[in-house]
UniProtKB/TrEMBL annotation:
Gene3D superfamilies on file: Zn peptidases
Protein name: Peptidase M28
Molecular function in Gene Ontology: metalloexopeptidase activity
Alphabetical list of Pfam families matching this protein: Peptidase_M28
Membrane-spanning residues: none
Residue ranges of domain Peptidase M28 in the record: 125-342
Matches recorded under InterPro entries: M28_fam, Peptidase_M28
Any one GO BP annotation for this protein: proteolysis
Superkingdom to which the source organism belongs: Bacteria
Length: 350
């Protein structure tokens, strides 16, 4: 290669390098802007999903407070007296239903039953109405059956005990609207996510009768809490950036159509007690979001949320023989029920 060629090539290379150097700031700025937009977008999504800035709502009846001792009594009654509560054990389910009806009636509820047949067996939902008739109804429910022949203390004797205690609180509350408490049957397999769930039958009957439902709240496992670091798991890893890693909070779970309902319930629960309340609003494709009776009301076109201790994402005894009454935290469960009561009053009295 001649000296002239070397000089020419070197000049060309130098000019290309200068051109690249001139472009770098421009591309760097564009990359930084794109990264900023991405982070902002993720922030907006995170804010929608978790709604972290919901303010505590002052309680309308601060004198109402759930009793931890009664919660424990009712959990033990369901687990020890009416076990097993699986779908095959009609006699035990009927005995449990009778007990629930008696307790809700004693609390001042107007109690009825919704009977229906599945594969030659008759099952029943227990319904209790509180407050005067109004154009729109607030529904709160919990399933009283248990998986297989398991004790089902957290899943879901805790939710049913909460429902009974809620009835006792509503019986002495200043209600201006119609509230219906429902103890559902057949939430567990083999009828889970089917038209045979008690909640599906109830939601369908409301829709067929043209009843307007302002909100439905499902109490699904509300008794297990722990302050152990790393005890809280998540259906998607990025959610760990938005929520505590200790299982010491209660969660309000809803869909994207129900953001306002999630905010109201969460705000009421935050204002009622010092128990941390977080929320998740998400499509049903996220694991666990629709894994309870609130799904039946979504299917019927009603707004609904689930209040939960996050079930299997925290409680490793879920669907095992170790889900027993002595593993639950009744003091914190009582705070859950106290918070739900304030949310119900806010909804019914608006």
């Amino acid at each position: 290669m001649s000296a002239l060629s070397v000089i020419t090539n070197a000049a060309t290379t130098l000019e290309e390098a200068r051109s690249i150097a001139r472009l770098r700031p421009r591309y760097g700025r564009r990359l930084a802007a794109a990264a900023a937009l991405l982070l902002a977008g993720l922030g907006v999504i995170g804010a929608c999903v978790s709604q972290p800035f919901v303010a505590a709502r002052p309680p309308s009846a601060p004198e109402l407070s759930a009793d931890p001792a009664r919660l424990e009594r009712d959990v033990r009654k369901l687990v020890e007296t009416f076990r097993p509560r699986g779908y095959r054990h009609i006699e035990q389910l009927d005995r449990a239903a009778a007990y629930l009806g008696d307790e809700l009636r004693a609390a001042g509820g107007r109690v009825t039953e919704q009977l229906y047949d599945v594969e030659g067996r008759t099952y029943r939902n227990v319904l209790a109405r509180f407050g005067p008739a109004s154009p729109a109804r607030v529904v709160v429910g919990a399933h009283y059956d248990a998986a297989n022949d398991l004790p089902g203390a957290d899943d879901n004797a805790s939710g049913v005990a909460g429902l009974l205690e809620l009835g006792r609180m509503l019986g002495r509350a200043p209600l201006r609207g119609d509230v219906e408490l429902v103890a559902f049957t057949l939430e567990e397999p083999p009828y889970f996510r089917s038209a045979h769930m008690g909640s599906a039958r109830h939601a369908g009957a409301l829709r067929a009768a043209g009843v307007e439902v302002r909100a439905m709240i499902s109490l699904e496992m509300i008794g297990y809490f722990t302050d152990e670091e790393g005890s809280q798991a998540f259906p998607l890893a990025p959610l760990a950036m938005l929520y505590p890693t200790k299982g010491n909070f209660v969660a309000v779970v809803g869909n994207l159509e129900g953001l306002s309902l999630v905010r109201l319930v969460k705000g009421a629960m935050r204002g009622a007690t010092d128990l941390p309340a977080y929320s998740l609003s998400s499509p049903a494709l996220v694991q666990g979001v629709d894994w309870s009776d609130h799904r039946s009301y979504w299917d019927a076109g009603y707004p609904a949320v689930m209040v939960t201790d996050t079930a299997f994402l925290r409680n490793r005894r879920y669907h095992t023989a170790k889900d027993t009454p002595d593993t639950l935290d009744y003091s914190r469960a009582a705070k859950v029920v106290t918070g739900v009561a304030q949310a119900v009053l806010a909804l019914a009295n608006e």
